[in-house]
Amino acid sequence: MTDTADHDVTEAPQEDLESFRLRAQAWLTAEMPRITAGWDALRDDDDRASEARALQRRLWDGGFAGICYPRRYGGLGLPPEYQRAFFEETEGYKMPIIFSTPTMSIIGPTLLECGTEEQKLRYIPAFLRGDELWVQFMSEPSGGSDMAGALTRATRDGDYLALNGSKIWSTYAYRADFGLALVRTNWDVPKHRGLTMVIVPIRHPGITVTQITMVDGSVEFCQEFFDNALVPVENVVGAIDDGWTIATRLLFHERHAVGGSSPYLSVPRLPADEGSEDLGHLAERLGRTDDPGVRELLGEAEMLITVERQLRGRLARGIATGRIPETGGSMLRLFHGNTSTRRATIALEIAGEDAIAWSPDLGTGGVGIEFVQRQSRCIGGGTTEMARNIISERVLGMPREPAADREVPFGQVPRAAKR
Amino acid sequence: MDLELDDDQRLFQETTRQFLESEMPISEVRRLAGEPAGFEREWWLSAAELGWTSLLVGEDNHGGSLSGNGLADLAIVAEEFGRAVAPGPLLGCNLVAYALDAATQAGDRSHDDDLKAILAGEMVASWAFLDAGGNWDPRSPTLTADRDSGDFVLSGRKLKVEFGEQADAILITAATAAGPTQFLVPSGAEGVRIEPLQALDLVRRYADIVLSQVRVPRAAVVGEVGGAGLPIEGLLGRLLVLQCAEMAGAADRVFAMTTEYAAARYSFGRPLTSYQALKHRFADMKTALEACHAITTGAAAAVGTRAAEADRLASAAKAYVGDRATEIIQDCVQMHGGIGVTWEHDIHLYLRRVTTDRSLAGTPREHLRHLGDLTMSREGR
Questions:
Q1: What is the pTM of this model?
Q2: Residues from chain A contacting residue B319 (CB–CB below 8 Å)
Q3: Cβ separation of B286 and A396 shorter than 8 Å?
Q4: Domain residue spans in chain B?
Q5: Which of B279, B324, B332 to mutate to test the interface with A (most CBs of A within 10 A)?
């Protein structure tokens, strides 16, 4: 299945693309606020979160929410080119960026594919209206990259599942309403066969959310603790013990969302780094543009971003035509991780001593902090080591790594001693 | 690069590859290594018949492209040349044909016969762009051409001219009072001295060319006197794209050879490809290889259509591919172990070829500098 095949083809566009574009243009001018200096859609405060909900509500009221979502669930049922046209028109307007990923572009399409009719009717219109924000509860503190090795347990208790354990690295969970959680329901079968995907209300008895402070001081990442949190059985997505099937689809949609090719994104995805300070500007501010070494570093940064754009295009076209396997997207992940860590090092080199101590008006401290935080680019969203495994095994067909947990009941798989 | 080809291009790629596989196996390349010229004229005639000399030339001059972008088409041939480490004056003949064709678009018909001969494979030509004492960038030639009663007198030294000894005519970039100018000079002209060099590539020959008061008529000028700035830019962009395509093709072939070898070779009871340390290196190589193809395709599209970003993309391509393709092949040597550094193993033929492409017309480092300069000037600093 491709990412674009599952929009509702029976709902033929009522309106041609250019008319749609003109109508969107007129509506945006009349109804949506323009971006003003200093506005940061991702700035982490309550005002911004409620602003995002209000903006999403405006899109809904104006008839522009969920352009590629089926009409039945509150969307417009239009093909991806309508979403792209809308992206182009929204430039310069405030948009509810935090709804785009994961709610609209990862959770939504997963529910569309795998949810029950009741679940779709209950949850999809609610996020399209801006009422409910979602996060993913996939990673666990003990698990690292081994997502299928989830230890959070869900035990059947009448019409409920009782959740115990912990999830981590969910972004903005303290502001969200629901999480899609991968939990273990069966310890007597191999690891992929004992998992269940379940919808978890976040502000709920037995659930505690804590924020994690990162090296750069940001607190967007969270850890959740489940202490006998009771979730109704009808919240299970797919079948009990078949959660890995759902997780596979979720990961598929995640790759397309992060890679920018998902039709369900409601805000165009900027290639990471393009928002950070232009290196030429940095060199100029510091009066270092005539240094031949600095020129060479600027050239290297320019080369890397140019090559990455070309690689992104090549892989997108290759995957769309089936000439490159879908797992080939891992090559972009690896390339981008390496490119952005290198870019952070180049910035550090250009800034020199100004990266470690600075006057407030020079404000070069971001360069040093970016460097200290650098490896997050090769960790978050799947480590580059996992990408290398995928490329060598799935793209090049090399033998898979031996695993001690294959075909073994999960309860017997060795794991770290409890502290 | 085959991901991005249309049906005609794919067919052309297949026939090119088949021709090279049957007519120019590595054993034949090794035999030619011992021959003075490194290639045979008859073979080049048959290459011309396949259209390898005409892709950068307009239809009114009996050339023609497959896709509308002749450079993208020729890059297919260059990539196959890399795969086969093929011999022959592919780069020089095509670049000079391009320059002569461009001149006829500007009304200069004095080289029609030369152009026909190059297209037919009868004439071997080469572009001499590297000046003694100058820098790598052909956009600022230092060899001088002075006007003298209707003629021009050329003096100076051109370095590392590809097939300089074998070429029938040399396209020379020169500085005149009016600005950069190009001349097509017969290699037998009086005052031209050819100094053959020893070369890293086994079949691609190089020579220095010394011009001592070489007198040529006005008709030797290609295009306009003083107007070669843009044509030189066009030639350089094409040369860089063709170098990158050749390097990407060579790296592709070596990578395929190496993954096959590593899968078949066992140590400690396991195939080499089952070791994660090696798998991760193969993943890095594969990613870099895709990036090499991607940027080469992008540069071929931009340079071949004279897009505004042609210069930037060509330099980005040379900087990236020049560095990565050589490193990929070096890593493949490492994967082979001792056999990889023997004369008997073919891998060094490829490494010689990509090292040659890497080093001429600007090294990766020099192109990074150029890109840095472009970045600063683009933003008006």
A1: 0.90
A2: 299-300, 303
A3: yes
A4: 2-120, 125-222, 229-378
A5: B279
